[in-house]
Amino acid sequence: MLLEEISYLHLPINSKTINLNTNFKIRKMKTNQTIQKIKNYSKIPVLALAILLTGCKKDDPDDDVPAEEHDHEMITDVDLIFTNDADPSDVVVVSAVDPDGEGVAELTIEDAINLDTGKTYTLTLEIWNDHDDHDDHDDHDDEGQHEEEDHDDHDEEGDHDDHDEDHGENIGEEIAEEADEHQVFFSFTNDAFSSPSGNGNIDNSSDAINYLDEDSNGYPLGLETSWTTSSVVSDGTFKVVLMHQPDVKTSSSGVNDGDADFELEFKLNIQ
Asked: Which of 128, 148, 254, 267 is deepest in the core (most CB within 10 A)?
């Protein structure tokens, strides 16, 4: 008898007929189910091991370290002081003031720059945090007659000295100490000055500015600069930008490198 015929052989058992081919399929199905269960059970130790390793993994301390942020000092007052090199008593002071310190208001320009033609000026930037200084002055007024007399004597020394005395924390000194991280950039009405000529170095950091100070690497700082006036200018502009450039300041860095501590644009008149 052929094998194919045997697979379909019907045998009578208890008055019932069993299909051998069907029995074979049932056994095969049960065998497959058993194998699948064994495979599933075999995954349990692997899964447990993975959970154990994950639970025992030590946290990387670097994962919790926030991105480095550079602190900026509060700046409430910026003074631009132009001193005539030929006549130290010829001083032009212009200011920008933040009236509310940590509030929403920004530094506000208070004055226009009015210079004479054909003169050379040394420009000094003084930068202050005067936010908490008003209460100190109130206490100072109550200290007695002796200090009032000292204050009267101080008034006789000149308005500029009074201006310095009235300020609080000298941020300019801190910037000078951190000169490697700061630089002041300038722009102005084209050819308003014979030296430096042009329109400043905000649009191109390689353009000429007469810096009189530098950092420890020999790169310019800009708290002191020199300016020689040229032609008559009416309603011109003079812009000053202090950049904070930790780890990025180089001989060619510009206003697009780092963050601006302040950006001020004054009206410029040269008569």
From this structure: 128
